[in-house]
Amino acid sequence: MKSRLKKITIFSLVFLFIFGTAITTTPKQQVKADDGYNGKIFRHWCKLRSSRSKRSKVLKRLEIGTPVTVYSTSGQWRKVSVDGKTGYVLKKYVYINTDAPTLEGTTYDKGQTVAQFAQRFVGNSYVWGGTDLNRGADCSGFIGSVYRSFGYNLPRTSSELRRAGRKVSYNEKQPGDIICYNGHVAMYIGNGKIVHASNRKTGIKISPRANYRRIVCVRRVVE
């Protein structure tokens, strides 16, 4: 009986070690951009690595100012391509280009473009009072800075954003719309999800449910 219990205990510990480690090291979310978008290295001799680990092989050392194509952000890493090599760089060393694409097509198309642009900055920091998409922003600063990149000047605070654009019903929401809560704002990106500067712990992130808290109103800026 004791021998059997010992085997079960050992098996349980091995199971927890293998699968528990996998669970804790898997990034909570990954944002992909199939076509990539422009970024720039802002640290001397930044290391381009073969995988998302500081112990992985160094593929290339990048000088400050080196242009890169960013494909995804996962945890503390960004997947980038430079000079024909694709690898991973610590996200804090990659400046994301804030030049927004031109808004074209229908209202839905334009909103989708804004929402896709906003997702470039997922993983960046939450900074109270901040409005910088790379160095950090708070919830209203994030929304305002995204729209400012497209030429829209919106009110600064979350409460003032309840008057931005025009009001639409929650059932009419589409990508790019601003979801206003009590003391917080987010951007709807489709499929029930939002992107927002959440808090200091999680930074700018994607949340799976736009209605995770009581919604005050939904505002549409692009027409």
Automatic annotation (TrEMBL):
Keywords: Hydrolase, Protease, Signal, Thiol protease. One of its GO terms (molecular function) is cysteine-type peptidase activity. It is an enzyme of class 3 (hydrolase). Its EC number is 3.4.-.-. One of its GO terms (biological process) is proteolysis. Residues 1-24 form the signal peptide. Belongs to the peptidase C40 family. This is Gamma-D-glutamyl-L-lysine endopeptidase. The gene is ykfC_3.
